[in-house]
Design goal:
Layout lengths: L1 H15 L6 H7 L1 H17 L3 H15 L2 E2 L4 E2 L4 E2 L6 E2 L4 E2 L4 E2 L4 E3 L11 E2 L4 E2 L4 E3 L3 E2 L4 E2 L4 E2 L7 E4 L4 E5 L2 E2 L9 H30 L1
Amino acid sequence: MILKDIWQDVKAVQERDPAARNALEVLILYQGVHALIWHRFAHWFYKHHMFFIARMISQIARFFTLIEIHPGAKLGHGILIDHGCGVVIGETAEVGDNCTIYQGVTLGGVGLNKGKRHPTLGNNVTVGAGAKILGAFEVGDNCKIAANAVLLKPLENDTTAVGVPARPVKVGGVPVKKTEKHVSVETYNRMEERVIELEQELRRLQAELEASHEQ
């Protein structure tokens, strides 16, 4: 089963990385594939409650690949970690099938409570370089998170999110209309009338105060 997962990861690189020439090159030279291979074994030990060995394997992988994947993280098939340097995937994170993760990505947790605290990515999700997905929520299938975005809320399927904090800009390929708040002419006129009333009231009070001083 582990060997099958490794082969699917190699094929994913060949299919989605135009720089990949052949399977042997990918298997020997791609640190994203190496990190996934190490993780497949570390996760097996983690599932069998051999936590020290699992964590030791993940730390060795981190040393050689600069990619840190907690052995408790659940990763699907056909994942591409492109370039990969600086990627961090937390203990309770889940990544679906055929996802693409670029360098500097963090699938992180918030808070100090135990239990589910990292994000869950659906299938065919693309996470751009430097993006941070923080919290225990779900990102739907076929979503795209832009480079350097900071995602703090769930996303529906087929959503593209950008920005800090990240917000949806496309759903199903259709641009999301940006909501704008306008002050209507009527509201502006009412505000202007109220200012005039307050100015008149202020002048009246000043006149009364001056008259009381004169007496």
